[in-house]
Specification:
Two copies of one chain form a homodimer. The first copy, chain A, is mainly beta. Chain A folds into two domains: 435 residues, Methylamine Dehydrogenase, Chain H, CATH 2.130.10.10; 112 residues, Immunoglobulin-like. Chain A is 10% helix and 41% strand. The first copy, chain A, contains nine helices and 43 strands. In chain A, the strands form ten sheets. In chain A, strands 8, 9, 10, 11, 12, 16 and 17 form a seven-stranded mixed beta sheet that branches. In chain A, strands 34, 35, 36, 38 and 41 form a five-stranded mixed beta sheet that branches. In chain A, strands 37-43-42-39-40 form a five-stranded mixed beta sheet, with no helix packed on it. In chain A, strand 34 and strand 35 form a beta hairpin. The longest helix of chain A has 17 residues. The radius of gyration of chain A is 27 Å and the shape is globular. Chains A and B meet through helix 2, helix 3, strand 3, strand 10 and strand 32 of A and helix 2, helix 3, strand 3, strand 10 and strand 32 of B. Chains A, B: This is Sec-dependent nitrous-oxide reductase. Chains A, B: InterPro entries: CcO_II-like_C, Cupredoxin, EfeO_Cupredoxin, N2O_reductase_N, N2OR_C, Nitrous_oxide_Rdtase_Sec-dep, Nos_propeller, NosZ/Cyto_c_oxidase_sub2. Chains A, B: Its EC number is 1.7.2.4.
Chain lengths: 623, 623
């Protein structure tokens, strides 16, 4: 067929026309085309054939699943569920000794807002940070391995819902609280709300060498609630902004009582100045944290009135403005960072709240954007052409508008009730303007039904042209709240774990395998390889492990298959145990052999043609 | 653009040619077209635009994740992770009282082989059954709700790996064991393997009204291992077949020792006759199970030699033949059910193993199919045109061949190392011949890298034409082993749970909400609704729950939003608790308030514009 295309050159125009024709037929109009997707149907835009890769990773929160969802864009294929706050037998996470300790007994988390580490206000692809709203934790996932590297519990907090987000060189990962709460989670009647309950912002440090968190300092704020927030860039790089709601101090029926005020606040604070104040000792130590109290330590923290119950605020890519969205007001409000600094400098304050000076709305506000009929704006994303994008929860649409003029450029319907959205490189100083993904809360009948509870959805929107185009609707498990989309070539994974002769408990040759008994502790130094387990090569049955009932057993297992993607699992029947060793990894499984009997052991992660034969037995001699 | 297509009619041929041209360019050749996919590019074949639905559900095992993965075909979009053997905070599964009890303390399972319930050898779309290889359990998922309805532990087993599969009217769900093991899992040295270790097949009953399992009977078999197996259809409807491996009785290093024999066996047994024998009392009661021992109870169980270490056996759609694949021999072997019955009738036995007569291979075997260069065949799937499909693990391909003649029709490369495959309606009496999905074990560089451990993959193959066509490669979390693909209109979900005034612990009106104390037990009869919790409408703060440290708390929560897809979550901060109530559901959360303090409660599953405000407080007064 290819042959007669060049032969009939008059048909080439027909061919192009036909493409559009088929686009019309199968996937709606493709719009005016100005980019590499020109002349592609929507089907073709999302189709990544075998042999090609997606252009971007999307790192999405998994909400109350506790996990990180990794997607490819534009195919919207889910590449991986990375366990973060919840045990995951598919990868042995939370079963082996190290990850079990890291989880600290928790079996779930509520992961809302991923933040990729940044260098010079650009995603650098090294780590992604995660918040656990439910249990006040922060986690870091190493993007070399897509493994969770560290989890830290944060004292004094009441649900770090408004982050994580990072400062422009990842000096801090910021976690503002959602629910105000007595410090330390102590008991205090709700009648004492204004007095005893506090909002806390945690400024967390992460050492990229040791891969460990450390709590830098905390900021004590009024008992308001905080929502998705942002750090400044370039000129505003020392500042962070946060939206607040429930400035009414409601303690019950927030649905009504926290929606009374026409204005809530943006909190604007200078993390660098506060860092210096902490270094100067201007803090109180509370439950192990260095806490700054703005009623005592003046300056560096300001409030700006903003339209009712906002659900997010974001600096523009150039860092000169920040845009807040009033969830219960139909407004996007643009504030000038320069004007805010002027007001700060001139001490042009209209009020003070809990020691925090309030800046004059009219002087700092640059423009209110109020698209007709639009309702429920959430936070703002950006492209490379000076445009902003807002999801509208209630009117179920995305609105594209010009930051400089407030002009509405385009609107596209969404199915349905979008929460936040994420643009390619959208939180950096240089969003690239190719894709926007809307994270939708209600799918209705978008997909085949899976019962009373439907999937959420992610909708892919091509924003490379003047007109937005909804390209694809993709179902997703509960529940993405926020995501970041990063260029694929920024993430550099390792193919295997390096063979490390000095690593404690590792065994690299069969003759070093052994079973050592110390009192009632049994230590197995074993090997997993295609296609067998070797616990003790010198034994009659190298894959048999016999212990006594009541023994405490430690299985130190090294995967000596130093080949990409050859992961071995290790499950013990009826013992509720399963963990894995990736190529070159050593992991330890610890358990008490409290049940006597005969328990098959087998490789749970398909590894080779003789995977089925990769097994052994745990024999527990009765007491 | 549409306008000038009709105007330039001479270009229509060009348009069609152009489609193929673009197919060549973007997605490989589309092959000769004989079905509704004619003239569609691969991109168009998998693209399901908003407003349309997938044609099929694919119900896939989630392997050691323990869960059921639900996909749409042909889009290959994952519609839902249904928790089965592993707790899942995203849905509260294993956190609320009822599902926690159902899981029985286990925090993982190894789900290998889903089986959809059948009526007259056709999927009826009512339930899907699941095996837990690791912990010897069976589960049923109700396809009206996609919720796990029941889980039962099976005595005497050593990993039910060779099923589940169902008889043609779901009289039994069959679970043959993988690892032989002393009955009851008792301790016995591996030196006593041939004497004390047993293979067990469980014949499980499921009551579709009460949605409860019951163990019908078990069959004691030699200490061999068993792999993916099948029940007969039509003429063979009373029979089941199972492949065996490790007929060498190896107890160590199975990689070598279980691969010595050139022939292992197919076990052929008549479940209806055995049922009668059980009814006649010809069984022993062992650990609560009725166990038939073929060394004592003669007849109804036979063995047939088969090529080395087979990995599956399947009846043809008409039930007249069964096809086994020798994983370590490059053969698919077709056996005649009629000839097997003849040999049984004539007592034409060549040997006896553990009381089981062995049928003569040459007389029962109809044909060996040995495609040149093909290595590692797994089990067999079918289309509607008399063809069979086998995945080849080692040569990484799918082979299509004619059952009647053994003729090889087509081969297509797979990326890489396919395990089992699943055809649309493929295990029924009438496979429909549209799609085959290959469940691949090794993805290599098919996708963007997510570290040393890569995703598995599912590859969609269009089998509607003579030539197979690989249409799409889709990543998937660990680890699908088997799947079934069912026509979408066969599954009828309910939109909401019915309002049931008589349901224990349900509360349907605000005035009935209440908190009752009985000693140190606190029972909350509460409501979840958009956008608040009401524990006691008469209280000053209806969403406050104050208890004393040490109280045992029961929160009975009813979701009175009887609207589709309005699910509410219920998380308690720092208490590691989260569950959900779907529309019309009542669920109970039970916990001991052992930590004093102030703990926010909030809706964890996005429900409404004021979801963020749907919260309250648990106050635990210190002792």
């Amino acid at each position: 067929m290819k042959n007669w295309i060049p032969a009939a050159t008059g048909l080439v125009a027909g061919a192009l026309a036909a493409t559009v024709f088929f686009a019309d037929f199968s996937s709606g109009p493709s719009g005016s085309a100005t980019n590499e997707n020109a002349n592609k149907t929507n089907a073709e835009k999302v189709y990544v054939p075998y042999g090609e890769h997606d252009d971007y990773y999307m790192l999405s929160s998994g909400g109350h699943s506790g996990q990180l969802f990794v997607y490819g864009v534009p195919s919207m294929r889910k590449l991986r569920t990375v366990p973060v706050f919840t045990p995951d037998p598919a990868t042995g996470y939370g079963f082996d000794d190290a990850t079990k300790k890291m989880l600290g007994g928790f079996t779930w988390g509520d992961f809302h807002h991923p933040a990729i580490s940044e260098t010079d206000a650009e995603y650098d692809g090294k780590f992604v940070f995660a918040n656990d709203v439910a249990n006040n934790r922060i986690a870091a996932v190493d993007l070399k391995t897509f493994h969770t590297a560290d989890i830290m519990s944060m004292p004094n907090m009441g649900g770090p819902h408004a982050g994580t987000f990072v400062t422009q060189n990842t000096e801090y990962i910021v976690m503002p609280t959602r629910f105000s709460r007595p410090l330390g989670g102590d008991y205090a009647s709700l009648d004492q709300f204004e007095e005893k309950y506090k909002g806390i912002v945690s400024m967390v440090k992460f050492d990229q060498e040791t891969k460990k968190f450390d709590l830098g300092y905390q900021i004590m704020l009024p008992p308001w609630s905080y929502d998705l927030s942002d750090a400044g860039k370039k000129v505003s790089g020392d500042w962070i902004v946060m939206t607040t709601y429930n400035t009414e101090f409601a303690t019950t029926n927030l649905e009504i009582n926290a929606s009374q005020n026409d204005r809530d606040y943006i909190v604007l604070l200078n993390w660098k100045e506060l860092e210096k104040k902490v270094a100067d000792g201007q803090y109180e130590e509370i439950n192990g944290a260095k806490v700054i109290d703005p009623t005592k330590v003046k300056g560096s923290i300001y409030a700006i009135p903003v339209a009712k119950s906002p659900h997010g605020v974001d600096f523009t890519p150039d860092g000169t403005r920040f845009i807040a969205s009033g969830k219960l007001a139909p407004l996007m409000t643009i504030f000038s960072f320069e004007k805010a600094m002027e007001a700060v400098k001139n001490e042009d304050f209209t009020d003070e709240k809990f020691g925090i000076p309030v800046l004059p709305y009219d002087k700092v506000m640059e423009r209110e954007v109020d698209p007709p009929g639009a309702l429920g704006p959430l936070h703002t994303q950006y492209d490379d052409k000076g445009n902003a994008y807002n999801t509208m929860f209630i009117s179920s649409e995305v609105i594209k508008w010009k930051i400089d003029t407030g002009e509405i450029i385009d609107r596209t319907p969404i199915h349905y009730s979008p929460g936040h959205s994420s643009a390619a490189e959208g939180d950096t100083a240089s969003p690239d303007g190719n894709w926007l993904v809307s994270l939708n809360k209600i799918a209705k009948d978008a997909f085949l039904s899976v019962g009373p509870s439907h999937p959420e959805s992610m909708e892919l929107i091509d924003i490379s042209n003047d007109k937005m185009e909804l390209v694809y609707t993709n179902p997703v498990d509960p529940e993405p709240h926020y995501a970041q989309i990063i260029k694929a070539d920024k993430i550099k994974t390792i193919p295997i774990y390096e063979k490390d002769e000095k690593r404690p408990n590792s065994v690299w040759s069969q003759e070093d395998t052994r079973i050592e008994r110390k009192g009632n502790e049994v230590h197995v130094y074993g090997i997993a390889m295609r296609s067998k387990f070797i616990f003790d090569a010198k034994s009659k049955r190298p894959d048999e492990l016999t212990v006594k009932q009541g023994d405490k057993v430690f299985i130190h297992l090294t995967n000596i298959d130093l080949d990409q993607d050859i992961t071995h699992g290790f499950g013990i029947m009826d013992y509720n145990l399963n963990y894995e060793v990736q190529p070159g990894q050593t992991n330890t499984l610890e358990f008490t052999a409290d049940k006597a009997g005969t328990f098959p052991i087998y490789c749970t992660n398909f590894c080779s043609a003789l995977h089925q034969e990769m097994s052994g037995y745990l024999l527990v001699e009765p007491k």
